[in-house]
Structure to design on (263 residues):
């Protein structure tokens, strides 16, 4: 019995199958990188190389007359890094506590508000810091908060974030919350809405997504409606606006009521 080597140029089955696979790959590359981009009605490429770069996602010399659209309102300039502000020093927390004396009137003595102002106790430090910076640059508009942050330095905002993050949250077993509505537990896949917890996580959060449990229902509803209408537009990459725009009024109500009860 002859034992033919499978991987050998002398094996016609091997050379043919490799040849066919290579031919398919070449045809697919030519179609994907050259033919399809050149067929695209809106594009005018100067050369085949430009078309290839465009298909690979590299923007080269934009065609003359192409306008780069920039927002005509202030957008957030904060860059988020998950490790940012972690491991605050005791001095920083202490300085934050002193600065926070001007905030107690609305946000409560221990960061827990009695009115419908957001609670800050136990909030992720990155979320607090980002919001303060956004109030300062006008990326998040609030007639109440803007004058209060106007004279805060970057270090002040970091200290305030460290202090509030250090304060304990109100926590209960969560049993009082009742069952979470479907928009919270599973989102709405057909409308590209991920479950809220995918970004507003229990243990950690994505980017600047805040801790929502225990926030006043009125506050949550107002923010969701503001994201949906575009009145609030400081979320990086429109992450939250895309979620809120797809929610129905009933879902906004249900999610706000649920998070306000959950602690
Ligand atoms: C006069 C009342 C008032 C005072 C004083 C005040 N705040 Fe606020 N704060 C508000 C209100 C109202 C909002 C909600 C704004 C909105 O609706 O967008 C807010 C929002 C915030 C937020 C955003 C919270 C979130 O979850 O997005 C942060 C952070 C914050 N305040 C920090 C502070 C700090 C720090 C101080 C003290 C330097 C302070 N505030 C003083 C009323 C106040
Ligand atoms: C793709 C990630 C993502 C998902 C999914 C998501 N959010 Fe958000 N959300 C964010 C981010 C990021 C922010 C912070 C925006 C900013 O930078 O101010 C935010 C902010 C918010 C705020 C304002 C919080 C505050 O105190 O300022 C509310 C309320 C909120 N989200 C509710 C929800 C609800 C309810 C759901 C589920 C239906 C949801 N989010 C799903 C990313 C997400």
């Amino acid at each position: 019995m002859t034992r033919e080597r499978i991987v050998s140029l002398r094996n016609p089955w091997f050379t043919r199958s490799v040849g066919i696979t290579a031919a398919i790959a070449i045809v697919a590359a030519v179609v994907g990188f050259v033919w399809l981009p050149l067929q695209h009605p809106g594009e005018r490429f100067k050369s085949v190389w430009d078309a290839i770069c465009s298909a690979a996602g590299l923007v080269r010399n934009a065609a003359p007359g192409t306008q780069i659209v920039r927002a005509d309102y202030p957008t957030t300039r904060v860059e988020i890094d998950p490790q940012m502000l972690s491991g605050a020093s005791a001095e920083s927390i202490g300085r934050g506590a002193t600065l926070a004396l001007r905030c107690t009137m609305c946000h409560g003595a221990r960061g827990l508000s009695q009115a419908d102002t957001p609670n800050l106790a136990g909030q992720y430090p990155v979320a607090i810091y980002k919001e303060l910076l956004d109030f300062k640059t006008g990326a998040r508009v609030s007639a109440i908060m803007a004058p209060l942050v106007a004279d805060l330095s970057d270090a002040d905002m970091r200290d305030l974030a460290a202090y509030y993050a250090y304060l304990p949250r109100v926590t209960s077993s969560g049993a009082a919350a009742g069952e979470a509505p479907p928009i919270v537990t599973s989102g709405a896949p057909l409308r590209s809405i991920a479950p809220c917890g995918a970004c507003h996580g229990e243990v950690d959060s994505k980017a600047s997504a805040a801790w929502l449990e225990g926030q006043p229902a009125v506050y949550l509803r107002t923010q969701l409606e503001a994201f949906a209408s575009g009145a609030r537009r400081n979320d990086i990459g429109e992450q939250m606006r895309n979620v809120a725009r797809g929610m129905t009024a009933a879902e906004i109500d249900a999610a706000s009521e649920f998070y306000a009860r959950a602690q």
